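step: validate -> pass
step: tokenize input -> pass
step: predict -> running
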Amino acid sequence: MTAPGVATSRLVDLPAAELSRFPLAHGIEIPTLAAVLNAIGDRARVYVEIKALDIEPLVIRCIRESTAYCAVHAFDHRVVKTVKALFPAIRTGVLEVARHIDPVASLVAAGAEDLWQEASFIDDELIARAHAVNARVIAWTSDDVDQWETLSGIGVDGICTNRIAELATWGL
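step: predict -> pass
step: emit ->
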């Protein structure tokens, strides 16, 4: 609850110059997308999730001006379709939090190559259907070793986790 007379702001509504008021930690400011892409360069693929409408051209420009190897995904599949129209060569993905009747149709309709499916909704049938259209299935967010074993066993193409170091040593 906010105290009376205290103004609140959503980060999304603030100009970039004001983000310094909200450090991630002491002395560490929220970086811009350009700063993140420049820091990573071409050492790893950067998966950029777009969470707002009408910023696709800005994100694409930022990606094009960097040397980073990027892919873009979003829960709003219209965003993915717009990104693909603006930058056909970039890898894109659709995020799904539930098991729709035909999630592969959503992927195809958006022109995406990756289906980011919430891990508990992935089964071998979904993977087979996605692979049949040359798409990858990436499980999110899976933090359980037993689930990694199951997902790997049915052919998932990637796992998004909060336990990165453990997954890296696990051997996927």
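step: describe -> The chain has a mean pLDDT of 92.
step: cleanup -> pass
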